[in-house]
């Protein structure tokens, strides 16, 4: 009988205010969406146990538990915010497709995160696809950001649930392949 290896991983959500970080977590962890906007103050931590997956190298079952840190978007990265990043294995870097300026902010968020967690993995998220008007320039900027970090880009909707679970599962796969 195969044993399951339990692995806990800290995951951070990065991005500007109101890009949908909290809503993505709510959709992923509790499968719900709330239309009311409540800004995150400081940090909120959620937990989600993922279904076990088979490790391709050892054949063993691995079950990730994500400790998901929803970190308030701050324009100033002080030592407290940087300490929130410590110990993270990965991050979803989130931009709001309806506000292209939030894509430009991703670089600063990712660089600050990487300065604390250099081995961490990223997935770039373009959120609010359900109300996005398919602007090619916006998509091109997101693709460039994903290429800069050699990672995947997913277009999600916390409201409808489109590709939300996929984003976390892809991040799980990337972290499973960490050296």
Poorly predicted residue ranges: none
The percentage of residues in β strands lies in 25-35%
In the CATH hierarchy, the architecture is 3-Layer(aba) Sandwich
What's the overall average pLDDT, rounded?
Answer: 88
Shape: globular
Taken in chain order, the helices and strands follow as EHEEEHEHEHEH
Distance between the termini: 27 Å
Structural class: alpha/beta
- Number of DSSP helices? 5
Major sheet, described briefly? 7 strands, mixed
Topology:
Blueprint: E1 4-14, H1 21-30, E2 43-49, E3 53-54, E4 61-71, H2 79-85, E5 88-96, H3 101-116, E6 121-127, H4 136-148, E7 153-156, H5 164-176
Parallel strand pairs: 1-4, 1-5, 5-6, 6-7
Antiparallel strand pairs: 2-4, 3-4
Helix pairs in contact: 3-4
Describe the overall structure:
The chain is of the alpha/beta class and 179 residues long. It has a single domain (4-176), classed as Rossmann fold (3-Layer(aba) Sandwich). Helix content is 33%, strand content 28%. The chain has five helices and seven strands; from the N terminus they run βαβββαβαβαβα. It has helices at residues 21-30, 79-85, 101-116, 136-148, 164-176; strands at residues 4-14, 43-49, 53-54, 61-71, 88-96, 121-127, 153-156. Strands 1, 2, 3, 4, 5, 6 and 7 form a seven-stranded mixed sheet that branches. β6, α4 and β7 (153-156) form a beta-alpha-beta unit. α3 packs parallel to α4. It starts with a strand and ends with a helix. The mean pLDDT is 88.
């Amino acid at each position: 009988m195969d044993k399951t290896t339990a692995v806990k991983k800290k995951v951070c959500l990065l991005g500007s205010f109101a890009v949908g970080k909290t809503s993505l977590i709510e959709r992923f962890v509790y499968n719900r969406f709330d239309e009311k906007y409540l800004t995150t103050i400081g940090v909120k931590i959620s937990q989600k146990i993922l279904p076990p997956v088979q490790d391709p190298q050892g054949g063993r079952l691995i079950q990730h538990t994500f400790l998901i840190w929803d970190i308030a978007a701050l324009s100033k990265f002080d030592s407290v915010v940087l300490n929130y990043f410590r110990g993270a294995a990965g991050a979803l870097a989130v931009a709001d497709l309806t506000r292209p300026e939030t894509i430009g902010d991703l670089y600063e968020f990712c660089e600050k995160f990487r300065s604390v967690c250099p081995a961490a993995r990223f997935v770039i998220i373009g959120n609010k696809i359900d109300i996005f008007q398919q602007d090619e320039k916006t998509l091109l900027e997101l693709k460039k950001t994903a290429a800069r970090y050699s990672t995947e880009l997913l277009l999600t909707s916390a409201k409808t649930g489109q590709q939300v679970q996929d984003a976390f599962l892809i991040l799980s796969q990337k972290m499973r392949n960490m050296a």
